[in-house]
Amino acid sequence: MPGNKMPTIYDIAKEAGVSYSTVSRTLSGFEFVKESTREKVLAASQKLGYVPNQQARSLAGGPSNLIGVLVPTLSNEYITQIIHGIDDELTKSNYNLILYTTNRHQGKEATYAAAIMNGAADALLLVAPLITDPYLDVLREQNFPYVLIDQADQSDQSTAVNTTNRKGAYEATHHLIRLGHRRIGFIAGLPQLNSAIERFSGYKAALADYDLPFCEEYVALGKFTSGNGYAAAQQLLDMPTPPTAIFAANDLSAFGVLEAIREHRLRIPEDISLVGFDDIPQAAMVYPKLTTIRQPLHQMGHEGVKLILEMLADPAMELRRITLDTQLIVRDSCAPPRA
Amino acid sequence: MPGNKMPTIYDIAKEAGVSYSTVSRTLSGFEFVKESTREKVLAASQKLGYVPNQQARSLAGGPSNLIGVLVPTLSNEYITQIIHGIDDELTKSNYNLILYTTNRHQGKEATYAAAIMNGAADALLLVAPLITDPYLDVLREQNFPYVLIDQADQSDQSTAVNTTNRKGAYEATHHLIRLGHRRIGFIAGLPQLNSAIERFSGYKAALADYDLPFCEEYVALGKFTSGNGYAAAQQLLDMPTPPTAIFAANDLSAFGVLEAIREHRLRIPEDISLVGFDDIPQAAMVYPKLTTIRQPLHQMGHEGVKLILEMLADPAMELRRITLDTQLIVRDSCAPPRA
DNA sequence: ATGAAAGCGCTAACAT
DNA sequence: ATGTTAGCGCTTTCAT
User: Fold this and answer.
1) Quick check: B2 and A77 CB within 8 A?
2) CB contact at 8 A, B329 and B294
3) Which residues of the protein have their beta carbon within 7 Å of strand D?
4) Into which CATH architecture does domain A53-162+299-323 fall?
5) How far is residue A122 from each of residues A26, A64, A96, measured CA to CA in Å?
6) What is the mean pLDDT of each run of 10 residues along chain B (339 residues)?
7) pTM listed for this prediction
8) CA spacing 20 to 30 A to A9: which of A194, B8, B172, B225?
């Protein structure tokens, strides 16, 4: 390790002529310090260029001032937008962010969560985790502050930020139905994720409400990635009677669908309509611009941070659940079916 | 703080019937431990669900197994792609990532760097920092491992990963010249950044090589953001004799240019040509698809991590500098000027 | 090969 | 209001 010769509170104590516990108290914002000593300490710490050692602070029972953020991957703009929102909000506080990428690996999630509980961070933000309920139980038992972003636990015992996934999917499907489509394909997301389940449910509900049959064959697994979305679309397009419209459970898989459609030499929206979900920035940039369901990604990050900060301030805070609204964004990828 | 009741090496020691220093040695991979005791210790730690406390480990002189990554912002896909590359490579090691966002705030960079040197992380990856040389001197004096990604220091004393910015900008400009353009505007980047300076220099060099006059008025400041790129383009397009082509110093500002051009009711590439720099994923998604200079963003992250890992393994490693190649990606945003 | 003891920099009782 | 004393969980001499 590097030859760290950073000043410690002990050095400051000497410099200021006080005991080092006084320094500690002053620096960690303790009230009852005489104004004159406080000034002496501050001056000394300034002079020596003191920077607190977070490890020591946290080891001794203080806060680490770190918020752990657990994300499945960095390859989906949907995630990075949420992280961006988290970071924005965190910037206003004096917390820093420690990022754990699990690559959708459950074992890693558990390991990371353990490390975090073990003092690495003061709280945990779980973004669309695959994490299983037992693990959340551990966090709760330890009374460790955490919030779920875009995921729910079965037992409904976690503070969480979600969006109206079911309603959004319903609207997406309804939009297509309203345009006159009757054969609507669905590219499903990762079945372990609550959002995927709800979107599927919204899709089915809309079909039912408008008396359209639900066909298992019109559902293909896109797993929220563009590659799988592509493959799933191929599957649908190769059917004898392919759908005239496709609703993809997220934008990323919609991009894969786009590619598959193009390869089939079909035009969007003339030959086939497409709706996505998320409204990541690229959705407005692809050609044709994607009609999609907007999730307030940044805001999801904001709200998550606000909740966690509240929990940190009030450990006894009661369970909270925030549901943000989604919104249909009509762009250029939908039209009535061909006559 | 939460009621952490995580097992410590002391608990393992009891369980395994050895002293806790033996546990420490076993767990931190010390060689001279009898095979049988090693097994006992490992079994006990397994049984108790032991997770090492990084704070304590690092405080006691061990590594934190954390790599600090300092980025200016999360709002540019160019940055998130590099982070993605860093993360990929880090995932293969047993290091985790602690992310510091400075929002281009110099004071923060200094504070963060100090915190990091103070034990928060074992090494530092600086992505396009605005950080000033004196600060890098401190890192070097303390012999703290760091690498610069996409930035160079004046004194050329830092291990760094860069790309052929000047050559790339030259090619971009040359591409436009070859198409027949003679009035080529330039949207400049943040002048504090080396990459911005080199791209500007490449632009000028190409003009000079092909006997085109360099006009100050054809240069506008885009600062690498889409908003400023938009404003800069407005400025160029409102000139009495506007350029017939624009080279934007990065894709993000090119997107701003795109918008400005659209508002001027001009078509790309028929009325005006546009080239970007970076090749972020959106570049291929906008309409028309953007011709640009590709930087191997992921790879920049990979190489940075590889370098830092080498430095960690060999503290005496000599200075290294890696320069990755850029590449002209021709898409749909350029054409010969109107006759 | 393993145990004992010291100490990393700090916070938090416990004193006074 | 401030000084004294223990640790937090671990690595690392120094013994044996």
Assistant:
1) no
2) yes
3) A 18-22, 25, 32-34, 36-38, 56, 59-61; B 4, 6, 8-10, 20-21, 24-25, 27-28, 50, 52-53, 56-57, 59-62
4) 3-Layer(aba) Sandwich (3.40)
5) 22, 6, 10
6) 69 91 87 86 90 89 90 93 96 89 82 85 93 81 92 90 98 98 97 96 98 97 96 98 98 95 95 98 89 98 97 92 98 94
7) 0.91
8) B8
